[in-house]
């Protein structure tokens, strides 16, 4: 077990910059998820920790060892790949034993460790099978077993669940989390799926274009996103955004560029922000139907999608689409006019996207 | 311990090195040697010392009608054979591109000419073409047609050789195009049929354009080999009668290993080399354009 | 409609049978002639029904030293293919994994160049070094046939193996070369079979290299068959028996490894 320190790491291929200076401190035993859209550099960063990519500049430390120039085999990390990378000509047991054999561990100890890992993962009955005779979920488990037997300093996961179907993915999610709680090994996990990140991580690192946008615990990212990108990326359905300005003159509220007026309760911050170009961000679950016609802003209902536990309504306000999510059952229909009001909202700088204020009503 | 080993650090060089050295020493070096010889007066039989004579070999050979004839003959043989093979091979592939009983057997049969020893194939066809006992003339006369001299006559030797090449190599085009057809997705064909295209229109506007890159690549692969055809011609006619079937490759062989006029042989080989190189560059161009 | 379909179907099979006969005809003629006496062969009109004889085969394997040439061909082909694998597999791996395209083109040159353009210097050098009519010269020359085939087929095959397999092995503690040896090679069986079959057949069939570099001692089968024609003026039965003997191994190999051979032959032109 060990901490991982990434200090101002950069990576470029030819002229393209993949990572533009990334620093992350991962504590011993922590489960950190790197998340971001494809091409943000998260997989490259993970592969650099594994030693599969060279580091253009900066430092990577595992424990207190600088590992920049270490070969992958000398880093004592284990990695689970997106396509599992199981060795097709070896049995399940052979796949798990391979790394131990390479390390010259004696036969009895190998058998013991393989048996233990197989037991943890429920693979005991499958030890003599070959990978092509396994289902997707079983292969996934073998890939994890291969990592577990090694008892490495750090586990690396590169989108390990993206080849599984939705149901299995949810099940494996909790299995991996459970595994982390049992083994207490440092884990770095890459995904593009923000739900995976939210549900599994101790701490999330949101990346975009080779930079870290924000680092924090899942709910911290959800409650206080650093900027528009993180606000839009974390949370599903995504946060609604309206461009416009704050007005504090005869009425207090937010005037969207489309003309929609969102009445807001008075607050000292409004004064400072008045007149600046802003973006108003409201999560779908932070919209409710206003008590009176005067209390909110008017929208026209376009689509109603009830799932039973909640109702998702897509509505339009002067041409701008909004999504609202209600826990209670409203009988709204397409074409209805509604008045919505936020229970919680964020204000972002219209120019650089930084979050300026978050207000609960 | 934490230092990568020598092999690991230099694996990009070490892995390909033996193969690289092999080709460089045993092929590139000899080719350069051949090139150098082309500027000398070397004749293995005369025993005279090697002398630098500049471009004289080139001048001599270029003025030799036998050389010009050989170039024309090489091109005639190659182009005729490959065009026939391409058309016939593609047509057969399109016919066979459906499920039918014995398809696997038919594909095996198609493989047989490709893997047959060319020298032996040449000999079999010599028996077939034999003017007095050959089956070819028997077939002609039973159809009431005049008998031919086939490879024994200067007028018919090239077409007769083309027939052999077509027999042996048409199946290669067929197999390649069949593989290409098998790799196409079903949807465009279904879409065309839903759009109301007739079988012929599907073939003309969907199938052929879609396998065209594959056909072209097969054609160019074939072109390169056809230009270098040696075994069959050497075994069947040795370039004769007279020089009537002497291609550049045969001529180069004779100048090298029968007359031992190394300098002039080199010029012939360089000419062939450039013909092949032109076609090879065609491959590269074609592949890159079909990839986009 | 139904009748039309059946007619079309019948027509299709007629065409298929016709094509098959055209392809097969020279083989059938060769085979039948190899069992004919000289009198039957030169009979006019050609005889379809005759009493078969084994005398041609007896002659080829008895009087002619065919078994020796057979062994020569096998040894030369086997060694050339084996050595080509030894140097070609790592090169193919490098081409596939480190995208060394220029190396691929370089090795492909051997496939593109006319053999004679390097055979003449070979002849001169082999004479000087006393390597004429030795296995060394012959095997090396046949490697120029086998190596490009091995590299061409195997680099395409390695491309189809996900690179994560070696990466995983490397994270697991293997060196790259060990991952190549313990992970990649053991799962490359189908590719290696394709490469070996194809390169062996092409080496087996090669005429020109042996014609120039070998004499009595290392003579291979194609030369033997060719000489047989020149010496035994129109002993057609013997020649046909010899032709059967030389073609049989390549054809048997092809039958056993049909799928692999088709794949190898079409791989260059069809991607995937």
UniProtKB/TrEMBL annotation, chain A:
<protein>
    <submittedName>
        <fullName>sn-glycerol-3-phosphate ABC transporter ATP-binding protein UgpC</fullName>
    </submittedName>
</protein>
<dbReference type="InterPro" id="IPR040582">
    <property type="entry name" value="OB_MalK-like"/>
</dbReference>
<keyword id="KW-0067">ATP-binding</keyword>
<dbReference type="GO" id="GO:0140359">
    <property type="term" value="F:ABC-type transporter activity"/>
</dbReference>
<dbReference type="GO" id="GO:0016887">
    <property type="term" value="F:ATP hydrolysis activity"/>
</dbReference>
<dbReference type="GO" id="GO:0008643">
    <property type="term" value="P:carbohydrate transport"/>
</dbReference>
<dbReference type="Pfam" id="PF17912">
    <property type="entry name" value="OB_MalK"/>
</dbReference>
<dbReference type="InterPro" id="IPR017871">
    <property type="entry name" value="ABC_transporter-like_CS"/>
</dbReference>
<feature type="domain" description="ABC transporter">
    <location>
        <begin position="4"/>
        <end position="234"/>
    </location>
</feature>
<dbReference type="GO" id="GO:0005524">
    <property type="term" value="F:ATP binding"/>
</dbReference>
<dbReference type="Pfam" id="PF00005">
    <property type="entry name" value="ABC_tran"/>
</dbReference>
<comment type="similarity">
    <text>Belongs to the ABC transporter superfamily.</text>
</comment>
<dbReference type="InterPro" id="IPR027417">
    <property type="entry name" value="P-loop_NTPase"/>
</dbReference>
<dbReference type="InterPro" id="IPR008995">
    <property type="entry name" value="Mo/tungstate-bd_C_term_dom"/>
</dbReference>
<keyword id="KW-0547">Nucleotide-binding</keyword>
From TrEMBL, chain B:
<dbReference type="InterPro" id="IPR000515">
    <property type="entry name" value="MetI-like"/>
</dbReference>
<keyword id="KW-0812">Transmembrane</keyword>
<feature type="transmembrane region" description="Helical">
    <location>
        <begin position="108"/>
        <end position="129"/>
    </location>
</feature>
<feature type="transmembrane region" description="Helical">
    <location>
        <begin position="149"/>
        <end position="181"/>
    </location>
</feature>
<keyword id="KW-1133">Transmembrane helix</keyword>
<dbReference type="GO" id="GO:0005886">
    <property type="term" value="C:plasma membrane"/>
</dbReference>
<feature type="domain" description="ABC transmembrane type-1">
    <location>
        <begin position="71"/>
        <end position="281"/>
    </location>
</feature>
<feature type="transmembrane region" description="Helical">
    <location>
        <begin position="12"/>
        <end position="36"/>
    </location>
</feature>
<protein>
    <submittedName>
        <fullName>Sugar ABC transporter permease</fullName>
    </submittedName>
</protein>
<dbReference type="InterPro" id="IPR035906">
    <property type="entry name" value="MetI-like_sf"/>
</dbReference>
<keyword id="KW-0813">Transport</keyword>
<feature type="transmembrane region" description="Helical">
    <location>
        <begin position="265"/>
        <end position="284"/>
    </location>
</feature>
<feature type="transmembrane region" description="Helical">
    <location>
        <begin position="202"/>
        <end position="224"/>
    </location>
</feature>
<dbReference type="GO" id="GO:0055085">
    <property type="term" value="P:transmembrane transport"/>
</dbReference>
<comment type="similarity">
    <text>Belongs to the binding-protein-dependent transport system permease family.</text>
</comment>
UniProtKB/TrEMBL annotation, chain C:
<keyword id="KW-1003">Cell membrane</keyword>
<dbReference type="InterPro" id="IPR000515">
    <property type="entry name" value="MetI-like"/>
</dbReference>
<feature type="transmembrane region" description="Helical">
    <location>
        <begin position="12"/>
        <end position="31"/>
    </location>
</feature>
<dbReference type="InterPro" id="IPR050901">
    <property type="entry name" value="BP-dep_ABC_trans_perm"/>
</dbReference>
<comment type="similarity">
    <text>Belongs to the binding-protein-dependent transport system permease family.</text>
</comment>
<feature type="domain" description="ABC transmembrane type-1">
    <location>
        <begin position="70"/>
        <end position="257"/>
    </location>
</feature>
<dbReference type="GO" id="GO:0005886">
    <property type="term" value="C:plasma membrane"/>
</dbReference>
<protein>
    <submittedName>
        <fullName>Carbohydrate ABC transporter permease</fullName>
    </submittedName>
</protein>
<feature type="transmembrane region" description="Helical">
    <location>
        <begin position="103"/>
        <end position="124"/>
    </location>
</feature>
<keyword id="KW-0813">Transport</keyword>
<keyword id="KW-1133">Transmembrane helix</keyword>
<keyword id="KW-0812">Transmembrane</keyword>
<feature type="transmembrane region" description="Helical">
    <location>
        <begin position="236"/>
        <end position="257"/>
    </location>
</feature>
<feature type="transmembrane region" description="Helical">
    <location>
        <begin position="136"/>
        <end position="158"/>
    </location>
</feature>
<keyword id="KW-0472">Membrane</keyword>
């Amino acid at each position: 077990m060990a901490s991982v320190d990434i200090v101002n790491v950069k990576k470029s291929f030819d002229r393209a910059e993949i990572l533009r200076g990334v620093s992350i401190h991962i504590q011993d035993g922590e489960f950190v998820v790197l998340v971001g859209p494809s091409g943000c550099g998260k997989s490259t960063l993970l592969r650099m920790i594994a030693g599969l990519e060279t580091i253009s500049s900066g430092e990577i430390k595992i424990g207190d060892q600088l590992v920049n120039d270490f070969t992958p085999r000398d880093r004592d990390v284990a990695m689970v790949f997106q396509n599992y990378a199981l060795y097709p000509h070896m049995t399940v047991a052979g796949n798990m034993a391979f790394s131990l054999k390479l390390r010259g561990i004696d036969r009895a100890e190998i058998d013991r460790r393989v048996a233990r890992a197989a037991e943890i993962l429920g693979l005991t009955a499958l030890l003599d099978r070959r990978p092509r005779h396994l289902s997707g979920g079983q292969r996934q488990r073998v890939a994890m077993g291969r990592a577990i037997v090694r008892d490495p300093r750090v586990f690396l996961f590169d989108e390990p669940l993206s080849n599984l179907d939705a149901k299995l993915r949810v099940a494996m999610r909790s299995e991996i989390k459970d595994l982390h709680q049992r083994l207490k090994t440092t884990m770095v996990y890459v995904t593009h799926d923000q739900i995976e990140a939210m549900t599994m991580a101790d701490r999330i690192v949101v990346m975009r274009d080779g930079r870290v946008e924000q680092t924090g615990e899942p709910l911290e990212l959800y409650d206080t996103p650093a900027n528009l990108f993180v606000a839009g990326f974390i949370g599903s359905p995504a946060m609604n955004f309206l461009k416009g300005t704050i007005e504090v003159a005869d009425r207090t509220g937010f005037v969207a560029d489309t003309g929609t007026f969102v009445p807001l309760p008075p607050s000292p911050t409004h004064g400072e922000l008045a007149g600046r170009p802003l973006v108003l961000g409201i999560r779908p679950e932070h919209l409710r139907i206003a008590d009176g016609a005067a209390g909110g802003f008017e929208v026209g209902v376009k689509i109603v999608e009830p799932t039973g536990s909640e109702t998702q309504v897509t509505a339009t306000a002067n041409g701008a689409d909004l999504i609202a999510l209600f826990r209670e059952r409203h009988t709204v229909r397409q074409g209805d006019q509604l008045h919505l009001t936020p229970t919680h909202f964020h204000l972002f700088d219209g120019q650089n996207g930084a979050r300026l204020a978050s207000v609960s009503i | 311990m934490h230092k990568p080993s020598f092999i690991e650090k230099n694996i990009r060089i070490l892995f390909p090195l033996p193969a690289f050295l092999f080709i460089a020493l045993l092929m590139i070096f000899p080719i350069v040697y051949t090139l150098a010889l082309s500027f000398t007066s070397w004749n293995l039989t005369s025993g005279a010392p090697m002398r630098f004579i500049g471009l004289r070999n080139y001048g001599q050979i270029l003025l030799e009608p036998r050389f010009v004839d050989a170039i024309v003959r090489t091109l005639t043989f190659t182009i005729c054979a490959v065009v026939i093979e391409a058309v016939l091979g593609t047509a057969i592939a399109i016919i066979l591109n459906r499920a039918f009983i014995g398809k696997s057997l038919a594909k095996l049969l198609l493989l047989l000419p490709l893997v047959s020893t060319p020298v032996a194939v040449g000999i079999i066809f010599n028996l077939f073409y034999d003017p007095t006992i050959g089956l070819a003339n028997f077939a002609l006369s039973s159809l009431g047609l005049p008998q031919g001299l086939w490879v024994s006559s200067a007028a018919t030797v090239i077409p007769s050789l083309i027939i052999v090449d077509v027999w042996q190599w048409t199946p290669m085009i067929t197999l390649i195009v069949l593989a290409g057809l098998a790799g196409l997705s079903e949807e465009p064909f279904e879409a065309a049929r839903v759009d109301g295209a007739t079988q012929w229109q599907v073939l003309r506007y969907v199938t052929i354009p879609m396998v065209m890159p594959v056909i072209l690549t097969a054609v160019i692969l074939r072109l390169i080999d056809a230009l270098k055809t040696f075994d069959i011609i050497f075994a069947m006619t040795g370039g004769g009668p007279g020089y009537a079937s002497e291609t550049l490759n045969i001529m180069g062989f004779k100048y090298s290993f029968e007359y031992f006029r190394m300098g002039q042989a080199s010029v012939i080989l360089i000419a062939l080399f450039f013909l092949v190189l032109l076609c090879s560059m065609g491959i590269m161009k074609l592949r890159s354009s079909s990839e986009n | 409609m139904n009748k039309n379909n059946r007619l079309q179907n019948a027509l299709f099979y007629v065409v298929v049978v016709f094509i098959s006969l055209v392809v097969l005809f020279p083989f059938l003629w060769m085979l039948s002639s190899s069992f004919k006496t000289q009198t039957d062969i030169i009979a006019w009109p050609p005889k379809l029904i005759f009493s078969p004889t084994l005398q041609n085969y007896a002659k080829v394997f008895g009087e002619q030293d065919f078994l020796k040439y057979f062994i020569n061909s096998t040894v030369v082909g086997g060694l050339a293919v084996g050595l080509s694998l030894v140097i070609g597999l790592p090169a193919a791996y490098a081409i596939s994994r480190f995208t060394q395209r220029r190396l691929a083109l370089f090795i492909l040159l051997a496939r593109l160049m006319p053999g004679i353009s390097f055979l003449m210097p070979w002849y001169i050098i082999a004479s000087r070094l006393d390597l004429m009519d030795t296995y060394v010269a012959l095997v090396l020359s046949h490697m120029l046939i086998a190596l490009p085939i091995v590299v061409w087929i195997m680099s395409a095959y390695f491309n189809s193996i996900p690179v994560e397999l070696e990466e995983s092995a490397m994270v697991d503690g293997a060196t790259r070369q060990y991952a190549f040896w313990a992970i990649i090679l053991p799962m490359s069986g189908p590719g290696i079979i394709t490469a070996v079959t194809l390169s062996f057949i092409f080496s087996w069939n090669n005429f020109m290299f042996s014609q120039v570099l070998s004499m009595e001692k290392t003579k291979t089968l194609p030369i033997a068959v060719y000489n047989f024609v020149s010496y035994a003026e129109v002993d057609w039965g013997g020649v046909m028996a010899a032709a059967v003997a030389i073609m049989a191994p390549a054809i048997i190999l092809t039958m056993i490894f049909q799928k692999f051979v088709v794949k190898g032959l079409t791989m260059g032109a069809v991607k995937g």
